[in-house]
Design a protein that fits this description.
Layout (H helix, E strand, L loop, with lengths): L10 H10 L7 E2 L16 H5 L5 H14 L4 E2 L6 H6 L2 E3 L7 E4 L22 H15 L5 E2 L5 H9 L1 H10 L1 H25 L3 E4 L9 H7 L1 H14 L3 E6 L5 H4 L13 E5 L4 H12 L5 E5 L3 H7 L2 H15 L6 E2 L11 H13 L4
Helix pairs in contact: 3-5, 6-7, 6-8, 7-8, 8-10, 12-14, 14-15
């Protein structure tokens, strides 16, 4: 991977080659997620964007990000409790940051009989994603891989039950925790079926709730349901899988368990929190033992490095990161988590352009 091909590649060819570990004309750039919800600040708030059921505001943000930074993939999403809100969890909305839960819908086993599997076309704020996705596929589907997903079965379960309560359930009444995650799995599958009908070719999963679990509880309450979710997505015809690792106290311990999800089912990006660049490079080699089409990305901290560093500091850190993680390919340049909506555009530009200009030693 010391030399880049001289001819410019299409985004589809660049992404495919990246997953296979083949030479590309430049570093593959992942989606710059959640900044699109804050492009209209201060006149158009984040709350305005994520509650706009027509998807017009979200589509405008995605269009602006895509045309300015020209990443190699697009992911249509809004906030990490959107599935739970569609089921009945109550969120607080903010002007310049993503919504957060204030009241969880499942308070007892009986509540599982009162809630319904959400329809992404009509329930909660999911129509914002559904309608924006249709517009994005119309405008960019011939030029970019377009994906959409959920935060995954366990994290949806934690967001309808509450992380503290589902953790208590795991210890005291595991049957109830299983029932909650089973319901959440059905919800996730139904939601991505809606995304597939709207034109998404890739699907996503993963959030922070599962990275508070011990490895043993991760194997019991996350792995089997994630496998079911992945198998359902494959049957629907999805072509790629984006798996997020969110920071949490057990993130370093459970990341290896993600290899049990079925990474060989389709091209997979395992992105997000890694302790450092060296760890991410090591995990890239580890995942390659399970599938020849797994890439990694992340480590660069969105909430502090990308949001608050200077452009020159960002450029220097990007080069250091790429020197460690880019060799042998299978690397997608993406921040470790949601980019805060108020992040300066010049910082994102430094993050992207420095990677596009990068050449290996």
């Amino acid at each position: 991977m010391s030399d880049f091909p001289k001819e410019e590649m299409s985004t589809f060819d660049r992404v495919s080659a990246t997953f296979r570990g083949e030479p590309t004309d430049r570093v593959c750039i992942g989606w710059l997620g959640r900044k699109e919800t804050g492009l209209g600040l201060p006149q158009v708030t984040v709350a305005d964007v994520v509650r706009d059921k027509s998807g017009v505001l979200l589509h405008k943000g995605i269009k602006a990000i895509t045309e300015r930074f020209k990443p190699d993939m697009i992911s249509v999403t809004t906030y990490t409790t959107v599935e739970a809100v569609a089921i009945g969890t109550k969120d607080k909305y903010f002007k310049d940051q993503l919504p957060a839960p204030v009241d969880y819908v499942i308070k007892s086993p009986e509540d599982l009989d009162r809630v319904h599997i959400p329809d992404p076309r009509v329930d909660g704020d999911l129509p914002c994603i559904y309608n924006a996705l249709r517009k994005v596929v119309r405008d960019f589907g011939n030029h970019y891989p377009v994906g959409a997903g959920t935060v995954g079965p366990f994290s949806v379960g934690a967001r309808i039950r509450g992380l503290w309560d589902i953790s208590f359930d795991i210890m005291r009444r595991p049957w109830f925790a299983h029932d909650v995650v089973k319901f959440a799995t059905e919800a996730c599958i139904n939601i991505i079926e809606g995304w597939q009908s709207a034109g998404a070719t890739g699907f996503a999963s993963g959030a922070g709730s599962e990275t508070v679990l011990s490895p043993e509880h991760f194997r019991q309450f996350c792995v089997p349901y994630e496998r079911q979710y992945l198998q359902a997505a494959k049957k629907m015809g999805f072509l790629s899988y984006t798996r997020h690792i969110c920071s949490g106290p057990s993130a370093d311990l459970v990341v290896d368990e993600m290899a049990k999800f079925g990474l060989d089912e389709m091209p997979t990006l395992v992105w997000g929190y890694y302790k450092d660049a060296e760890t991410m490079a090591q995990k890239k080699r580890f995942f390659a033992e399970f599938s020849p089409r797994v890439a990694v990305g992340g480590t660069f901290r969105a909430s502090d490095q990308l949001a608050f560093w200077s452009p020159s500091e960002i450029e220097a850190e990007v080069k250091r990161l790429l020197d460690v993680c880019y060799p042998d390919g299978k690397y997608v340049h993406v921040a470790d988590c949601c980019i805060p909506p108020a992040t300066p555009l010049e910082n994102i530009e430094a993050f992207v352009i420095s990677a596009k200009k990068y050449r290996p030693k």
